[in-house]
From TrEMBL:
Similarity field: Belongs to the resistance-nodulation-cell division (RND) (TC 2.A.6) family. MmpL subfamily.
Keywords on record: Cell membrane, Membrane, Transmembrane, Transmembrane helix
Membrane topology classification: Multi-pass membrane protein
Lineage: superkingdom: Bacteria
Organism for this UniProt entry: Micromonospora sicca
Compartment annotation: Cell membrane
Record-annotated membrane-spanning stretches: 21-40, 174-195, 202-226, 238-260, 281-302, 314-341, 377-398, 524-541, 548-569, 581-599, 620-642, 654-678
InterPro entries assigned: MMPL_dom, Mycobact_MmpL, SSD
Domain SSD, chain residue ranges per copy: 170-335, 549-679
Identification of the protein by name: MMPL family transporter
Length: 710
């Protein structure tokens, strides 16, 4: 124990040492000089295919793989040009379509565009063709196709480009420059909140620059892992990385700077003040970082690639934030000295040594007094409010249609809706059956007997003659529950054909497999995250009761956050959640929610050992209330920056996490947890020695107001 304590003291004194602070600064300058060029290249290794990918074991994935192997010349993304005139197509409209068909042949794989497909009502025509070339060539081709569609179009004729090629281009356009926009929005949000928090024209710059350095380091490490270790990185995980590093890094900075400010009043030497501040806060900061990082790594147990890839990317960000805030930030703060806090410079006062800093926190002393007077009523009332908020979950549903995934209308969505208005519902995205060629007729016959299948096409034989591909048009809209049930029945029917080796793919099959994959991930990852967080809390607090109370509080906070977000998202028109959001937001809210209770309870444990349970808990609430509340507001605001992205799932994530963090900050950590701890009493710390009756009289420390620094 003594050895560990000595090591902790040495580590705490390394960054703010009289000579070592300069060595630490030089180390970081060299590190960021090497990391900067790598961080810029992170977008080059993005693989956004993982955003929509399923596990390789899913039937829809196996169907795609078989189609690519059996029909290698027909795997280019399909462009679907839509032409609609509500009053009926004219000869001029048809001439426009014929001219476009000829022009589009230069972009089509194979050099030919099939004849247009007319709707039964005579109001619409479709031109479909696979786009040739690599990704860059396809992007140029799609841009030309879009321009051609609007050129010389007869008045009143509506046109749009949809299909996979059109959707791919819309996503590219939507996110062009968004990584820079998100970074600037996040940095601006953090800068404003730090300026308000510190009311200093200089101090806010230090944590902001430090967290920006941490973000560069994290981006560089993720780039290297993606380039050389096969780490999957997509736009979502890169966006979360930026927000997470800024939000969590600033939280750690706020906690450390608040403790440093306290110690500057007690120590004439700023180096000694920082060493004490770092030693007393590094335990809570390290435990917080470990909780979030290990919780994120639990996502490796998920099967959905976009969810699984988020884990290690986020964990790297947490590690970078922890490293920067416990080494670079202390060194820089000590190098610049006390004047950084101007105009509220904390001056050393011999009278401040041994005095209670709670006198500096008038509002939080009153809140602590309120909690202490009637703890049972406070925790019951707070819990009831959270339960009441949870009823808003009824406004949410799982499963977001593709045409509702953008915050604004894009061409591919417009085209899809035009098709749905004039063609059979399932014609937009038929199910695709891949089967052995031998029993092809039996497979087709079995598919035609399935309720909900409107039409089954003729089998298309693969070039090697081993496989056939059959299109099955569904009677219902592809993303409806009825269509999902039809695909389930269709799979059962074709699987039952002897020797068919049949697989059913397509958009509806993808949705069905996605739903099942996410359900499995929820059942596995959620208990794993809770178990990991519980173990970390037990090790940190050396107790069993307190971790159980904290875990119950953050789960209740998550449910309440989903309910409150349900009310907000329903009012915004985004109540249909992307399937991966409940699990991802659960992880962040549980891990980040525990963050604030870790900051509170580690201080409460420290004060309980000195003062006794009741005064210790109330004292901890008083002295940590302001800084933890500031940290919560900063974190909620940084996640709110995700709402600048043009995707509905990003907006949903911003709302859920933002609301959840604020609930955790203002209700759970400020009222529920301390009131519960007071109501349960010293048994909160069972089975540690703190749960035993005090062997000495417990008295609150003398409270004297420390004069404000000039």
């Amino acid at each position: 124990m003594t050895t560990r304590l000595q090591e902790k003291h040495r580590l705490a004194g390394l960054a703010p040492g009289r000579r070592s602070k300069y060595a630490m600064l030089v180390f970081w300058l060299v590190l960021i000089a090497a990391a900067g060029p790598l961080a810029i290249q992170l977008t080059e290794v993005q693989d956004n295919d993982t955003l929509g990918a399923l596990p390789a074991t899913a039937e829809a994935s196996r169907a795609v793989q078989r189609a690519e192997d059996a029909f290698p010349d027909s795997q280019k993304p399909l462009a679907v040009a839509v032409y609609v005139r509500e009053g009926g197509l004219t000869d001029a409209d048809r001439a426009k379509v014929d001219g476009d068909r000829t022009a589009f042949s230069r972009y089509a794989d194979g050099g030919q565009v099939p004849p247009p497909v007319a709707s039964e009502d005579g109001r619409a025509l479709l031109l479909s063709f696979p786009v040739a070339g690599n990704a860059d060539q396809r992007a140029d081709a799609v841009a030309d196709v879009k321009q051609r569609l609007t050129t010389d179009a007869p008045a009143g004729l509506r046109t749009a480009l949809t299909g996979p090629a059109g959707g791919e281009d819309d996503v590219f356009d939507a996110f062009a420059g968004m990584d820079t926009t998100l970074l600037l929005a996040t940095a601006a949000t953090v800068a404003l909140l730090l300026l308000v928090t510190y009311r200093s024209p200089v101090l806010w710059l230090i944590p902001l620059i430090t967290v920006a350095v941490a973000n560069q380091l994290a981006s560089a490490v993720v780039y290297l892992l993606a380039r050389h270790a096969g780490l999957a990185v997509d736009f979502q995980s890169q966006s979360i990385l930026t927000v997470l590093v800024f939000g969590v890094g600033v939280d750690y900075a706020l906690l450390l700077i608040a403790r440093y400010r306290e110690e500057l009043r007690r120590h004439a030497d700023r180096h000694a003040a920082m060493a004490v501040a770092l030693r007393r806060s590094i335990g809570a900061i390290g435990a917080s970082a470990a909780t979030v990082a290990i919780g994120l790594l639990c996502l490796l147990a998920a099967q959905l690639p976009s969810t699984r890839g988020l884990g290690p990317v986020g964990a790297v960000g947490i590690a970078a934030a922890l490293l920067a805030m416990t080494t670079l930030l202390p060194a820089v703060l000590v190098i610049f000295g006390r004047w950084l806090f101007w105009p509220f410079v904390p001056r050393y006062s011999p009278d401040a040594v041994g005095h209670d800093v709670a006198a500096q926190h008038g509002m939080w002393r009153r809140i602590a007094g309120f909690v202490g007077r009637r703890p049972r009523a406070v925790w019951l009332g707070t819990a009831a409010a959270l339960v009441a908020l949870s009823f808003g979950i009824g406004n949410l549903s799982i499963g977001m249609p593709h045409d509702e995934s953008f915050t604004n209308e894009v061409g591919s969505v417009t085209g899809q809706r035009m098709i749905e208005a004039h063609y059979p519902s399932g014609a937009v995205a038929p199910a695709e059956i891949l089967a052995a060629a031998g029993p092809a007729d039996q497979v087709v016959a079995a598919a035609r007997t399935v309720p909900g299948v409107a039409e089954v096409g003729e089998p298309e034989r693969s070039p090697d003659g081993r496989w056939v591909r059959v299109a099955a048009v569904l009677a219902d809209t592809p993303d409806s529950d009825a269509a999902l049930a039809t695909v389930d029945r269709l799979r059962s029917a074709v699987h039952a054909v002897p020797g068919s080796q049949a697989l059913v793919g397509g958009d509806t099959a993808y949705l069905l497999d996605e739903e099942r994959t996410v359900g499995r991930d929820n059942r596995v990852v959620v208990p794993l995250v809770l178990a990991v967080v519980f173990v970390i809390l037990v090790l940190l607090l050396r107790a069993l009761v307190a971790p159980l109370l904290l875990l119950a509080s953050v789960v209740l906070s998550y449910v309440a956050a989903m309910g409150a977000a349900g009310l907000i998202l329903d009012a915004m028109g985004y109540p249909k959640l992307f399937v991966g959001i409940p699990l991802q937001t659960f992880l962040f809210l549980v891990a980040l929610g525990v963050d604030y209770t870790i900051f509170l309870t580690t201080r409460a444990r420290e004060e309980t050992a000195r003062l006794g349970h009741r005064p210790g808990v109330l004292h901890a609430l008083t002295v940590t209330g302001g800084v933890i509340t500031s940290a919560g507001v900063v974190l909620a605001a940084t996640f709110g920056a995700l709402s600048v992205l043009p995707l509905v799932p990003s907006v949903q994530t911003a709302v859920i996490i933002g609301v959840g963090v604020l609930l955790d900050t203002f209700l759970v950590r400020s009222l529920l947890v301390p009131a519960l701890a007071l109501h349960v009493g010293p048994r909160t710390w069972w089975p540690s020695t703190l749960a035993r009756p005090a062997s000495r009289p417990v008295a609150a420390p003398p409270v004297k107001r420390i004069p404000a620094a000039s």
